[in-house]
Every structure is written in structure tokens, then in C-alpha cells.
Amino acid sequence: MAEKQTSLVCFVTVLLLIQVVESDIGVNWGTISLHKMSPSTVVDLLKDNKIQKVKLFDADPDVMKGLMGSGLEVMVGIPNDMLALLSSSTVASDLWVSQNVSRYMVKGGVNIRYVAVGNEPFLTSYSGQYQSYVVPAMTNLQESLAKANLARNVKLVVPCNADAYESSLPSQGTFRPELTQIITQLVSFLNSNGSPFVVNIYPFLSLYGNSDFPQDYAFFEGTTHAVTDGPNVYSNAFDGNLDTLIAALAKIGYGQMPIVIGEVGWPTDGAIGANLTAARVFNQGLVKHVLSNKGTPLRPGVPPMDVYLFSLFDEGAKSVLPGNFERHWGIFSFDGQSKYPLNLGNGPLNNAKDVQYLPYRWCVANPYKNLAEAANHFKIACSYADCTTLNYGGSCYGIGAKGNISYAFNSYYQLQKQNPRSCDFDGLGMVTFLNPSIGVCRFLVGVSDHTTSSGFRLHNNWISVLLIVLWDAWLFLM
Ligand SMILES: *[C@@H]1O[C@H](CO)[C@@H](O)[C@H](O)[C@H]1NC(C)=O
Ligand SMILES: *[C@@H]1O[C@H](CO)[C@@H](O)[C@H](O)[C@H]1NC(C)=O
Ligand SMILES: *[C@@H]1O[C@H](CO)[C@@H](O)[C@H](O)[C@H]1NC(C)=O
Q1: Cis omega (within 30 of 0) on the bond before 292?
Q2: Do the beta carbons of residue 190 and residue 157 sit within 8 Å?
Q3: Ligand 3 center to residue 398 CA distance, Å?
Q4: Sign of the Cα pseudo-torsion (330, 332, 336, 342, in order)
């Protein structure tokens, strides 16, 4: 009897230990930026904000170097276009592991915890072109990790898009029929290696893609459109989505699979519904919800293991195929300034320190020139620089034709590191010291490339400053 009771106590204790899972909030650090900050500034920013976990989309040597000795837990990534090779060649997987993992797993190196094999390889829009490579690539990589004696510390995962499963009610969740076999193999592989299932969840995209989607169901503030599913009531799309996945996993025999949220977030620009207020309300609601350890109706008390916000920074060179918002997911702007108040559990966000800005000057359309000829310059400037905020739904929409041209000129000029020739535009452009920003429409000043030789730049700068002062003075006197 006594023994039975002890074992019962043990059992309950274990159960409690399993139930009390603390989630960590990490971030995605993408690098498809037009203005890159030095990796060491970024790592300082992460540490300053007590962000312990960071997810990458590749294994960029500069970024990895910046992470060395930081102690941050890192998920490195393998792009989809490497999957075919890695699935067919153990030489390639050995090489990938040695060049991108082993090399950093040394004292004072990088604390690599996960390798993301592909990124959303099952996305419907890829029409299946990557899916057959995923499990064979993982098999090879697992063997390579084992050979390098790293299999215990480094886990392979596959960040999965939420369109891999579907259902109108969470409890009815299933994987897409054409994916069921592959996902079953994948999940069995993950399970036998002690890896979690990683999923990306985007209520913003549900809202963006469907005008009937109830607005308040996307957030975490209660809703007039709760979803009732048998005994369970869902008040937010995030929980509904997560439980759809949990039901789908249960259907293939893995209902207990630990889950990590690989990406979740809200953009601040480039679409109606993408703005600072919405992003703050969503992200803060999400963080509060996750840190409350409430879990979901299908997993009460068990929040996702980890949640990686998308994203750390805006990335101005990303494809706008999904929409103009794609370049505006950052909780920080490209220069490491927090865009809106957000508390990740450690108080308000701190901005990046010691950001090396280019000098405070801008390129605008010369008000004394006829801008009828500027259309082509506008187009070319915007094909290099990011002008997505000028479109309907963007923060610079409505600044007028001249404003548009100035914005394009300046974006290009900053991208060219303020090279004086890049503000020429056949004589239509001029450099100014007066910040041309209009209301919420910010005309940016670039950050300096840390690799530029500073001696040359300094000299160059003084000459341009002198010229600009003379030019501004002349305009003023006219
Ligand atoms: C290591 O990762 C980098 C960055 O993702 C990639 O360019 C490189 O090809 C990888 N190395 C090997 C040997 O595959
Ligand atoms: C911001 O976005 C939310 C929804 O995402 C929308 O309801 C709201 O009207 C937007 N605010 C502005 C000022 O556009
Ligand atoms: C400014 O540019 C945007 C994006 O190209 C365009 O939609 C808008 O109509 C332009 N505004 C004017 C006044 O030309």
C-alpha cells in the first residue's frame, strides 16, 4: 500500500514536471536586408534584451562569427535548394556538418542546438518540388552528426508551414492527404531522435488572405467570433491553429509530440492591417499568452516548447511576392530601433547601441526642376531600393507625386551609402540636411558598412558636407 502511494506520488510529480513547461521567446534573424548592421551589434542587441534563442535561415559565416562566445542558443538553417544534394550525397552532408556545425562547436564557439533542414519545404506554392528530399536529407545529416559526435547536442528539425494541415474545426485537423505519408515518416524520425515538431503560424496571413476572416479572432483580446469545437471554445486563431496541428499529429499516432513555433509575428507596414498598433497588440498578446503557460484546449498547461518571433529586423531585400508587408516583419527596424513598445518578459525592449549611421543627410527631388522626366528614375531607384511603403496600405502612401520621387531617390541614395553620384538622377536630385520625413513616413538614413575604410570615408565626407552646405545656402538665398 505504502509502496503504491509512493509510486503514485512519484507519478504525480513526474506529471507535474511534464506539465510545467516554461516557454522561451526567441527570434528569427534573417539577413535579406539592404542595410546590414554588424553581427556583433546584433548579438549585443539580443543579449541586451535577454533574448536567449535565435533562429537563422542559413549558416552565414559572418553571423556565426558574431555569435561565437555569446552563449546564445542557435538554430542554423539549410536552404531548400540544398536539400536535393544533401539527400543524395553523404559526402555533401558530412561536408555541410563539418563546415557549418562542427567547426563552431568548440570552446568559445557557437552554441548550436538545432539544424533546420529546409524552410517550409511542404509549402503548397512549391508544388511538391522539395518534399521528397526532406527525410533522405535528414537521414544523411543525422548520420553525419553522429559521425561528428554531435547527435546528442544538435537536433534536426523541419520548420513546417501551417498549410500542411487543414480543417474547419481544430479537433478535426489532418495533414494534407498528399503529405500524410511523408509527414508520418518525418514525425517518426523526429520522435526517435527526440526532436520537436516545428511549425510556423501566421494569423496575419489568414486575415490578409480572407476578407471574411474575423478581425478580432486574429488577436488575443477576446473575440465576438469564438470558435466552438465540442466542449472547447477558441478565442484566438493561434490556439485554434496549434490545436489543428495537435489533432493532425494525434491522427498519425504522435499526439504527444513536443511543438516549437518556428515563426510567428505581425508586420508593421505594406498592407492594410499591417501597422504598429496591430503588431504590438498581436505580439504582446502572444507573448503574454505563451508565458502564462495556459497552453491550448488540447494541451492545457503545455505551451509550445519555444516560440521564435518573426522577425528581429525588417528585411528590405526580401521578395514581395507574398505582399509588400513581407519586408516589414521586424520588431526592430533595420537599424535596431524598437518599433513599438513590447515586453518579451524582461521589461521594455532596448534599442541597439552604437549603431554606425551614415551622416544625417538625404537625397530628394530638386523642387526647382521639372519632374515630368523623373518616372524612369523612380522606377529604377525602386527596383534596387525598397519603396514598398509608398503603396496603398503603406506608411508613406499619400505623400504625393513629388514626395514619391523624393522617397525613391533617398532610398536609392542611402542604399548606395550616400555616394554623391547616386543622388544625381540627371540633375533631378539634390542632397539636403533637412529631414524630409512626413508624419509617419520615415525617410531613412542608412547605416554604415562596418567594412568600409574609415579614413577614406571621413575625407570624402568633409568634401561632400562642404558642397552640400554651399548648395543649401545657395537654394536658401535664391
Ligand atoms: C555552409 O552554409 C553556408 C551558408 O548557408 C553555405 O553557403 C555553404 O555551402 C555550406 N557549406 C557546405 C559545405 O555545404
Ligand atoms: C491597424 O491594423 C488593424 C488590423 O490589423 C486595423 O484594424 C486597424 O484599423 C489598423 N489601424 C490603422 C491606423 O490603419
Ligand atoms: C506614389 O507611388 C505609389 C506607389 O508606386 C502609387 O501607388 C501612388 O499612386 C503614387 N502617388 C502619386 C501621387 O503619384
Answers
A1: no
A2: yes
A3: 7
A4: negative
Q: Which residues of the chain are modeled with pLDDT < 50?
A: 1-6, 8-20, 451-463, 465, 476-478
CA distance 102 to 109: 10
State the chain's mean pLDDT as an integer. Answer: 92
Which letter does DSSP use for residue 110 in this model?
Answer: -
Residue 31 CB–ligand 1 contact under 6 Å: no
pLDDT for the residue numbered 412:
98
Catalogue all structural domains in the chain, each as residue range(s) with its CATH number: 24-332 (3.20.20.80), 362-432 (no CATH)
Distance CA(149)–CA(452), nearest Å, equals: 40
Catalytic residue among 73, 263, 315, 326: 263
- Which helix (H) or strand (E) covers residue 41, if one does? helix 39-48
Q: Report the Cα–Cα distance between both ends of the chain, in Å, rounded.
A: 100
| pLDDT at res. 281 | 98
Rounded CA separation 302/256 (Å): 11
**Ligand 3 neighbour 391 (Cβ under 6 A):** yes
Q: What grid cell was written down for 54?
A: 535565435
Cα 45 from Cα 62, distance rounded (Å): 16
pLDDT of 468: 54
**Ligand 3, atom 7, residue with closest C-alpha:** 391
370-388 confidence digits (pLDDT tens): 999 999 999 999 999 999 9
Rounded (to 5) percent helix, strand, coil in the chain: 45, 15, 40
What is the pLDDT at residue 67?
98
